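Subject: Sanity check before I submit

Could someone independently write out the structure tokens for this chain? I want to compare against mine line by line before I put it in a report. The sequence has 160 residues.
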Amino acid sequence: MADKPSVYLETTIVSYLVGWLSRDSLLVASNQELTREWWETRRRNFDLFASTVVVDEARKGEAKLASERLQFLSEVELLDVTSEAQSLGAELIRVARIPSKAEIDALHIAVAALNGMTYLLSWNCSHIVNAVTLPRVYDVCRRNGYEPPFVCTPQELMEI
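---
Independent answer below. Compare away.
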């Protein structure tokens, strides 16, 4: 039997798994529900990973919700943020034009690429799941010798 595809979980995924459904945005509430459905019905089809960056971000905010986020992360394998990942992240900012204020987002992509993830799962459509930015991101990863993960939302992994 072949290995399962690997999925790097960016912080928005565990954030959408906890807390109350958004009352500010129907779209966010829908995405939260879809994330919960993916977690319940599809996650077992994948090997799940996150990084120490995700853990650091998940610890922030209200203590009860942070604890719940960390509980979800206890079920996935954690990847280290190496100096190579930091270098690739910096190049993603320089060359792929990810904004410097989104340094953490570039690190998520770099860690996933360096560790050969099949997918990077995120709801961050500003700096990660962005059709304008992704061709440049994929190009930078490949020029540095890494096959980039396919960056997508949970909705795109519901059918696998």
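---
OP: Matches mine. For the report I'm noting this point. The beta strands are 6-9, 47-51, 77-79, 119-121, 150-152.
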